[in-house]
Hints:
Helix content: under 10%
Strand content: 5-15%
Oligomer: single chain
Number of helices: 0
Number of strands: 2
Order of helices and strands: EE
Low-confidence stretches: none
Bound molecules: zinc ion
Largest sheet: 2 strands, antiparallel
Shape: elongated
Amino acid sequence: MAKVKITLEGYKCERCGHEWVPRDISQEPKVCPKCKSPYWNTKRRRVTMSVGAS
Ligand SMILES: [Zn+2]
């Protein structure tokens, strides 16, 4: 039996690290199926907060 490596194309959530293969690869998922974050494909950026401004 020959061993083959099957690589599936999928997505990885940058927020929770969840990896999944969507049914329709041509359509980018709107949210992560696990953490439901709409920013699953966005790396966490430094957020400028205006807290403490007096
Ligand atoms: Zn996620």
